[in-house]
Amino acid sequence: MTDFKNSVFQGRSVLAEKDFTAAELEYLIDFGLHLKALKKAGIPHHYLEGKNVALLFEKTSTRTRSAFTTAAIDLGAHPEFLGANDIQLGKKESVEDTAKVLGSMFDGIEFRGFSQKVVEQLAEFGGVPVWNGLTDEWHPTQMLADFMTVKENFGHLKGLTLTFMGDGRNNVANSLLVTGAILGVNIHIVAPKELHPTKEIQDLANGFAAKSGAQLFITDDLDEGMKGSNIVYTDVWVSMGESNWEERVKLLQPYQVNMAALKKTGTPDDQLIFMHCLPAFHDTDTEYGKEIQEKYGITEMEVTDEVFRSSYARQFEEAENRMHSIKAMMAATLGNLFIPRV
Ligand code: CP
Ligand code: NVA
């Protein structure tokens, strides 16, 4: 008889990449590619028929919220959005009590917010799978989409070199460093010394890299850091919850992804792509963009409009893949699928 509990993913939470093996992450990536093919072919995949999932958002979101919502509906589940001002979480009710209540009504819980501890507590007390939709520390569902996009473009992962340039201490940089290290993708972090990943994150990544063979390189030298990259990746200079624009603009202007930076890779055009988790400041068509132009006289931040609109750019495929990969993750952890080993 099928023992669902012995399925590799059934009932598991996805809180941080470090909790998964390379084979498990690759399984979820490949499952995402499969579900994308089903979606494009119009083939239904209602693995979560009758389930209810709660979507908790302390921070704002376009992609993650949309991806969880549409993925849940495609899987036959009902998604319920619970925004920062809608529920008592943390203000009038402890995380533990909230988790117990939500876990008694919902079959799965997504959480986007500040503290990693909160998402961990939701998982500890909720009794249902909890999915981290971004915290100050990690962005694991972004990683599933990102490495799915890389695999779509290159056909494989191991041995490729992904260079993240920008705020090397943020959640996306942390996640790329650790996930690449697990998967055997070489990761370069190019950032001013002040914004290099913490020792704790570097130690964690080095441990995984020793097993996978990934080469990790953290530097403030653009020439050295860019060399040999297949994927050049960047993210906003100031993340949600931060407001230190002046300091970041000053520190990170030399680390903007522009055509000159891409040239430094020395990589042939057909072996080089640009990625960005989005949202991006590549012009002045946003309130922040306009404010930064007025204050600091720059019209582009982490990436130039030229690169953003170039043939290297894959950020919109990457954004779409959030939906397919989140679908894979929810189905695998909640759908009683027969996945006895990976
Ligand atoms: N990349 C990403 O997480 O986008 P949102 O903040 O719009 O969800
Ligand atoms: N580092 C960014 C990622 C947004 C998807 C932030 O936390 O705001």
TrEMBL record:
* Annotated organism of origin: Secundilactobacillus silagincola
Q: What class of enzyme is it?
A: transferase
Record domain Aspartate/ornithine carbamoyltransferase Asp/Orn-binding: where: 158-332
Q: Know the name of this protein?
A: Ornithine carbamoyltransferase
Kindly list any coiled-coil regions of this protein. Answer: none
> GO cellular-component terms in the record?
cytoplasm
Q: Where in the cell is it found?
A: Cytoplasm
Q: What is its EC number?
A: 2.1.3.3
Keyword Cytoplasm tagged: yes
Q: Which InterPro entries does the annotation name?
A: Asp/Orn_carbamoyltranf_P-bd, Asp/Orn_carbamoylTrfase, Asp/Orn_carbamoylTrfase_sf, Asp_carbamoyltransf_Asp/Orn-bd, Orn/put_carbamltrans, OTCase_ArgI
Q: Which residues bind carbamoyl phosphate?
A: 61-64, 88, 112, 139-142, 277-278, 322
Set out the biological process GO terms recorded for this chain's protein. Answer: citrulline biosynthetic process; L-arginine biosynthetic process via ornithine
The entry lists its GO molecular-function terms as: amino acid binding; ornithine carbamoyltransferase activity
Keywords, sorted A to Z: Cytoplasm, Transferase
